[in-house]
Design brief:
Blueprint: H1 3-11, H2 13-21, H3 28-38, E1 46-50, H4 56-65, E2 70-75, E3 85-89, H5 95-105, E4 109-114, H6 124-145, E5 146-157, H7 162-170, E6 173-179, E7 190-198, E8 215-216
Parallel strand pairs: 1-2, 1-4, 2-3, 4-5, 6-8
Antiparallel strand pairs: 5-7, 6-7
Helix pairs in contact: 3-4
Amino acid sequence: MSKRWLNERRQDFYYRKAKKLNYRSRASFKLHQINERFDIFKPGMSVVDLGAAPGGWLQIAKERVGPNGKVVGVDLQHIAPLEGVSTIKGDITKQETVEELRSLLGGNADVVISDMSPNISGNYSIDHARSVDLCTHALNFARQTLRPGGSLVMKIFEGDMINAFLKDVRSSFTSVKLHSPKASRSQSSEIYIVAKGFKGGGADPASATGPEDISVD
């Protein structure tokens, strides 16, 4: 990490605010802002967080669902313990990890959230494709796990594959929107897909709509 990067991070508003509020990541504010806009969480809900380390999204989710809610997180990296939150170290692209998550959940999820990001190669097309691949795994997990009416929130890098992917998401949800929270850095290519109203079951290609029907918020 360069000295310049470290100095910029220390001066970042959301980084400093996260430190002040004891959040593990400035990304906590992205999920907070998404929830403020789209009303994703309710007390008592069950939530799965994919790519959860270091735990900033887990903290927000647990705050919103309260003591009667259930929050489960997974990441390739170790996640330091959080009170009231279950975590595992595993690869969401592996079926055994999916099954372990579902076992911890003990039923269907109300919400699946994913802030997963690929290792950045510096090649925009490669990074975009890898991001879409991770989102495909998140979408498939959501299709296996969400209750009807549930929600999926996931980060994706913008690029030429996004419209086809959004069409796939739209086949399983009644509402699909793109949203860029204020906490996202201005230079970032990330954007968040907010999908609500899970239809249940697998994808139905006949019900998918074209990219022109995808709302951008």
